[in-house]
Write a structure and sequence with these properties.
18% strand; Chitinase A, domain 3; 4-stranded antiparallel beta sheet; alpha+beta
Length: 655
């Protein structure tokens, strides 16, 4: 929930890079003498104006009140110390780490990676793997054990053990027991980068050497490689799994009836709108977003979709882990040219393991950007303190030595001074790498070069706010967003969910807002053929039951009528709009491609909902009620001064 809240807030409060020069950055208002300026307000408003759906909030005065309320909440969060929470600090630091990656780019490395990714995207690899788990930061000894175990399994495969049997027996991927390591087909960006690289560089039928990823060591067998099939756009009709009281599969019967109606010439999109239970696509005639190999969680659905050859071709009913489907091919999309794909490739690279390669290339730039100087005498002293016990990982630095070495060793950009004691502590941790560079002075030089690199990057990272104004503003917005989430959770959301007395009192005071529309208990008969529906109507008039009527009219493998039975609220998509609701059998009407009539047994007039029936909406409305009153309370607790003259200038500019 927090991720969606903060992301939404970030989008809402993001800003334009260009700030109008027609108005100086003046104080717009203050809260307890803390100033807030026109520049921030104008940036936020200009960005937000296209995102706001409520036209009333586009009014500058209304938006100013919202902005002021937002700042009041953030100030409240600081006053009660939410910024001191360890969880908050960790989340903010984590986000800063992610955001900073956007500022560590190397265009040459990026271009190489884009070209490589595009070439790989032209192929789809089918592979299986065996995983030996290993922590990403495992000690060298543990790493060696895992590597040797993977190598031992590879040798057994070379001696005749089938890869599938080896995966089932030795792989520590839990899914291997069921799939024998088979990962199916995939293309670029579907796997972590080291795994992908090994897969694309292994010949079909061969097993790779042990490959290290952040999950451990993998043995990868490539079983096939084919040209990328591109992507496909399909529409589908889905019926969720449902069982009848007698245990029979109601959903299978329903999907078969729908399929039969397709065979009789009825339109796919009309059937999808009428009967598909995928709410996200039914109103669009069942059309789904385009997808490629490995992008869906249902292999069955993917394979059926790609098996369709001609536009408008439909599949027979088939079952996935979601329910029963019929799929129709809308369009096949071939692989895009490099020119069209390169921008999306770059975005994906920044979110992928490849970004580490780009980040590493930053080192050379920083060595040119910043100066670094070392005190040679202090370095000589440091080297004299390191002996051959380092190779056995037992070298230690005493506290007395650290105190004595509290002198400057490294200076970065004539600004940051780093003590020799810091490097000695760094050395003590780095001996875990078990490097055997000799003599020991050379080993110290090796780690000192890494130490400089680490500190150059840390120095650069710590100054991103000074280097890039947009980075500074984004971090401030995210910081405030996290604080606001924690504050709202504490002051509003938790209270609105737990305050049952307040909920019920709010419900009683606003009962008119929670009412049922007119509800109709009915059987809805539909058909594309009026004569079939007329036959059904005559049988209803004779008092025949739904099951009898369907059996009588749906014969010889044809589905001539469909019947939906239930309690429908006025305005329900299944109810014909042109029928007046009465406890009777309606006349036959036509809407779109279908003829309808209703056999209505009961009508319930509009009436207030019980508290339990409307509880979800009541809680949501109660939250908004509490929030609105809370802002007024916050205003009473502080001194707010609005510079009305500046606000008028802002209004003129924005208009």
């Amino acid at each position: 929930m927090k991720n969606y809240f903060v992301l939404g807030l970030f989008l809402l409060l993001n800003f334009n890079q260009v700030f109008s020069q027609e108005i100086k950055n003046e104080e717009l208002f203050s809260i307890d003498n803390k100033p807030y300026f026109t520049e921030e307000f104008i940036r936020v408003y200009n960005k937000n104006i296209d995102l706001v759906k409520d036209d009333s909030q586009k009014n500058i005065d209304v938006y100013f009140d919202l902005f002021l309320g937002y700042k009041l909440k953030v100030e409240k969060a600081y006053k009660i110390g939410l910024q001191n929470s360890l969880k908050y600090k960790n989340e903010l630091a984590s986000y800063r780490t992610q955001l900073s990656k956007n500022y560590t780019s190397d265009s040459k490395v990026t271009e190489v990676l884009k070209t490589e990714a595009y070439q790989r995207s032209l192929k789809e690899i089918k592979a299986s793997h065996i995983l030996i788990l290993l922590d990403e930061f495992a000690l060298p000894a543990d790493t060696l054990i895992a590597y040797n175990k993977a190598l031992e399994i590879k040798n057994k495969i070379s001696e005749g053990l089938s890869f599938e049997q080896a995966a089932e027996t030795y792989s520590q991927d839990p899914s291997a027991k069921d799939n024998k390591g088979n990962l199916g087909y995939f293309s670029v960006f579907r796997m972590v980068y080291p795994f992908e690289s090994t897969a694309y560089n292994t010949k079909v039928g061969s097993v790779s050497k042990p490959t290290r990823t952040r999950f451990g060591y993998h043995l990868i067998k490539v079983t096939d490689a084919r040209d990328n099939r591109g992507e496909v756009t399909v529409a589908h009709i889905m019926v969720l799994d449902k069982k009848a009281d007698d245990g029979s599969d109601m959903s299978k019967n329903t999907i078969d009836e729908i399929y039969q109606k397709l065979q009789q010439g009825e339109k796919f999109d009309a059937l999808a709108k009428q009967f598909s239970e995928d709410k996200s696509s039914s109103d669009k005639g069942g059309v789904l977003n385009r997808f490629g190999a490995g992008q869906l969680s249902s292999i069955e659905f993917e394979n059926i979709s790609f098996s369709l050859k001609e536009v408008d071709e439909t599949s027979e009913p088939f079952k996935s882990n979601f329910g029963w489907h019929i799929v129709k091919l809308i369009e096949k999309h071939s692989v895009e040219t490099y020119e069209k794909a390169k921008y999306e490739l770059e975005n994906k690279i920044r979110r992928d393991d490849r970004s580490k390669l780009i980040s590493n290339s930053l080192s050379d730039k920083l060595n040119k950007k910043y100066t670094s100087s070392t005190d040679d005498k202090v370095m000589k002293l440091v080297k004299s303190l390191v002996d051959d016990t380092f190779y056995n990982q037992v070298w230690e630095v005493s506290q007395d030595v650290l105190k004595e070495s509290n002198i400057d060793l490294l200076v970065i950009n004539n600004d940051l001074k780093i003590k020799a004691s810091v490097f000695l502590q760094y050395l003590q941790t780095m001996q875990k790498q078990n490097l055997q560079i000799k003599p020991v002075a050379a080993l110290v030089d090796h780690f000192y070069a890494l130490f400089i690199d680490v500190n150059l990057k840390e120095y650069y990272d710590s100054n991103l706010e000074n280097e890039f104004s947009e980075f500074k503003n984004i971090m401030e917005e995210y910081r405030d967003g996290l604080l606001l989430f924690d504050l709202m959770e504490k002051e509003i959301w938790d209270r609105s969910k737990s305050d049952t007395i307040g909920q019920k009192e709010f419900y009683l005071n606003n009962k008119a807002n929670y009412t049922w529309k007119k509800r109709i208990q009915a059987d809805i008969y539909s058909s594309t053929n009026r004569s079939d529906l007329e036959a059904a109507l005559k049988l209803v008039e004779k008092g025949k039951e739904v099951i009898f009527i369907k059996n009588e009219l749906n014969k010889d493998g044809k589905v001539n009528i469909m019947v939906q039975t239930g309690l429908f609220e006025e305005g329900d998509k299944f109810l014909p709009k042109s029928i007046k609701y009465k406890v009777e059998r309606s006349k036959i009407v036509k809407e779109g491609d279908y003829y309808f009539f209703l056999n209505t047994s009961k009508i319930t007039d509009s009436e207030p909902k019980k508290f339990e029936d409307a509880k979800g909406k009541i809680i949501n409305d109660y939250q908004q009620f509490l929030d609105s009153n809370w802002v007024n309370e916050l205003k009473n607790d502080v001194t707010i001064k609005v510079n009305k003259e500046v606000l008028e200038k802002v209004k003129i500019l924005l208009k």
